[in-house]
Amino acid sequence: MSAVAGTDALHWLTASEARTLLDKKELSAVELTQAHLARIESLDPSLNCHISTFPDRSLAQARAADERIGRGESAGLTGIPISLKDVLVTTGTQTTAGSQILKGYESPYDATVVQRLHAQDAVFVGKSNTDEFAMGSSTENSSYGVTRNPWNLDRVPGGSSGGPAAAVAAGEAMLSLGSDTGGSIRQPAGFCGIVGLKPTYGRVSRLGLIAFGSSLDQIGPFARSVEDAALILEAIAGHDPRDSTSAPMPSPDICSHLTGDLAGVRIGVAEEYAVDGMEPGVETAVATAVESLKDAGAIIKQVSLPHTRYALPTYYITAPAEASANLARFDGVKYGLSIDGGSLREMYEQTRGQGFGPEVKRRIMLGTYALSSGYYDAYYVKAQKVRTLLKQDFDAAFADVDVIVAPTSPTVAFPIGARLDDPYQMYLADVFTIPANMAGIPGVSVPCGFADGLPVGLQFLGKAFDEATLLSVAHAYERSQPWWRMHPELGNEI
What we know:
The chain has an 11-stranded mixed sheet with strand order 2-4-3-5-7-6-11-12-10-8-9, with helices on both faces. It has a two-stranded antiparallel ribbon with strand order 1-13. The protein has a domain at about 5-260 and about 480-490: Amidase signature (AS) enzymes, CATH 3.90.1300.10. By secondary structure, it is α/β, with parallel strands linked by helices. The longest helix has 21 residues, at about 375-395. The protein has helices spanning about 15-25, 30-45, 55-70, 110-120, 160-170, 185-190, 225-235, 280-295, 310-325, 345-355, 360-370, 375-395, 425, 435-440, 465-480; strands at about 5, 50, 80-85, 125-130, 175-180, 195-200, 220-225, 265-270, 300-305, 405, 445-450, 455-460, 485-490. The model is unreliable at about 1-5 (pLDDT under 50). The chain is built from 15 helices and 13 strands.
């Protein structure tokens, strides 16, 4: 598959471009939604981006959006087709978290981010595929099949938010929402050649996000442009009194900061991100991107993040420990799958044994061990101390620079099945993204070229709650390059 630039097809419009056409009445929300639903019908049998779709409901939302536009009351996302990662609870349709244990489960309420998109009359076109309970880096761990990368159907789209990433990359949705616990938005965005944003921890309400690692999870967008990512962040961000981890801050004004100017911006390059095993094509693309930032007027400075090498092992103690606690609620009693085993203990064992997949069981066992008597201080408590050091590293670096630039992943998208039998190699796919989650800072991945015909992602990391600066830098880089206008050639364009 090769990159093809620009097309007049509705499914390749950015949300900002579509907003202009909708408000001028040159395009209707129904037409836009029909184009994306047709795209899903045509491509999803091969890509498997979505677990659930609901065309009648989507078109009803589009008609409501057109009525709102007709009254002259449109908001930023009115009539825009959006896909939701299937870890965000929604009324009226199942939320599975990619697991058999929640097959058919319907939530009695909508996640806060879903409510905020509803308030703007956005259009939901589907619930997208995910590694089971967001545990994975390839979307191969879903109980609902493997999602394929639109650039090469033999490659993974990344994970755990591979479904929403592939949906945007393939033109099945204009925007999508995913969740990022250790890189699950940025890494698939890099693999699929689109924009993926993990906001600061606490910037976006987690109410209605099925929890994996409660101190790490953050909801964020996939988009075709940085401007689109800013648009949806403004819609979903802001304080939620029902979420104790939600920061008491209003939604940020970001779009007005996207000036395209890099003059005098201080960008840090961390020596610790030059790791063994980085593919030469990725290294070259990232180095070229850094040079282009310098040419555009940015000041490139070396920074040090000395505890970076401890981020991966620290994460794989912290995240499984929190997962072990969060997934204890799936016991066959309150909701989801329930298998009668004769006794309460047998019901627990049968339900969880058959309902959870291998990767989820692996992480529950790792986490339970780390939290067990005699090991809690040696593992979990020590991991939290190291986590503090990781945050201090970033605090020190950001005293000298405005943002930090790094690869999103050390490799391009790897072949389906290549790492399933080697969890360690799978976990290494997130080596550049995990530190941001441990420190709670925002990060964004933008396309920066190709290696072996597959997209390469460039990651920018910013100060906590300074998404405005972060996205301003990312936007300036993006607009100086052709990569964000490249789309996969899927062979059966609609």
